[in-house]
Amino acid sequence: MSLLKIAWRNIEQRALASTLTGFSMALGVALVVAVLVAQGVIADSFTRGACGYHLVVGKKGSQLQLVLNTVYHLQDPIENLPYSFYKEFVTTGDQPGRFAPYVKVAIPYCLGDNYQGFRVVGTVPDLFDKLEYAGGRKYEFEPGGRNFEHDHFFEAVIGASVAKKTGLQVGDEFQPTHGLKEGDGHKHDAFQVVGVLKPTGTANDRALFINMEGFYLLDKHAKPVEEGHAADEHHEHEEGEHRHAEPAEHHAGEEREADHPGEARDADHHDADHDKHEHDDAHEKAAAAPDAHEHEGENHHHDHEGHDHHHEPLPEEQREVTAILVLASNDFSAEALRTTINEGETAQAASPIRVISDFFKTMVSGVSIALLSLTVLIIVVAGVGIMVSIYNSMNDRRRDIAVMRALGAGRGTVLSVILLESILLSLGGGLAGFLLGHALVGILGPVVEAFSGVTIGFLQFVPYELVLIPGLIVLASLMGYLPAMSAYRTDVAKALSASP
Q1: Over the Cα atoms of the chain, what is R_g?
Q2: Cα–Cα dist 435/458, whole Å
Q3: Mean pLDDT for the chain?
Q4: What's the CA gap between 492 and 297, in Å, rounded?
Q5: What pTM, to 2 d.p., does this model score?
Q6: Which residue, 3, 7, 148, 276, is most buried by CB atoms nearer than 10 A?
Q7: Sign of torsion over alpha carbons 406, 409, 414, 415
């Protein structure tokens, strides 16, 4: 009989004690696996999401908040930037903006809405046409889908996770809700889904991207026009119409009064009432001018084609952007831009990779190391449990060991059997813990996604898990050494002469 079978028979004879010690080892390994997988997947997801561009530009404040809000769709925006500042990064006609010579692509972001708790982002088609993610990968769409078009104001593209959880498909419509949290505000006009992104493993899987032109036309998304400026324009417009119509009306009034004096007075009275009514209507329209693009009612709905046909783009003086993704011409230009923008008073520029790296070093890594240390300590305690279990069984097994020695087994053979028992218990518990740990990750995946926006599942692995196998073997050998030496030193004559 092989030594492995002998060791396994010894474990079977102590089934209850072996099961309990193996289970304690499984719990320790499960916790280690869960921590390693969660840490690895979260770090990888955050790193993937920060790739594809050099800078995130936004209002001055916390750089971490700017990156988390813009790149990972977490937390709240700081404040908005003037649309004129965004134009400094692009070329309009033949006029390049101040930063345009150093920029390849500048993508504006407009935030403020959600759909069933998922962030709605107003942006431009260049986000998916010109930017990449995760080290050079291009955005792709599920079959039958495409990117939204600049001239189709009420088109949208949605992430893979959004499509999975909401059931939205190409051709469906959805109504964004005002506010960043579900149920906070009223519903906006509907957007039509024209594309579903293939899974990217980034936070963009959990967002809906709508045409920025349509975003500006939604309720409360236009920057209010100054009252004095709007009133002056309205007054000048009314005066111009009055001067233009006065000669013809005066001439016609004279003719009516000359032919029918009584009728002329009645007509003048009727025209005065009519003009007053039109004047009041004009004032009501003027009062509503700042909200010309706002729509009454929560369930206000237009035909998709009707949106694009009837709405004109919002004037630039009424526009703002929440943030700008900047892909610079090269790394040197990116650093120069970051320094220049941060020295100004309008905005700040943050390198998402640098910000996230610092965040993990100062916050996440420390917590992960502490959790990992605790879980390793649990494994060590489980190993001590295996040692105590085997050692306590030695008194009951000394006669068996003596019989083995009498049949010709050497001291080394006895020592090997005890070490194999310890290793089998450790590896058996470790294998169960490995499966249990991944099951735990799969169960807690939705909770982690809800709090951090990172998707993790049962089948996700990290390379550090491979260290567990040799680590358990070393631990089992160390913990099995003491009972193995006790068996090694067994006095054969004394053990055989003792009564059973």
Answers
A1: 37
A2: 9
A3: 78
A4: 93
A5: 0.68
A6: 148
A7: positive
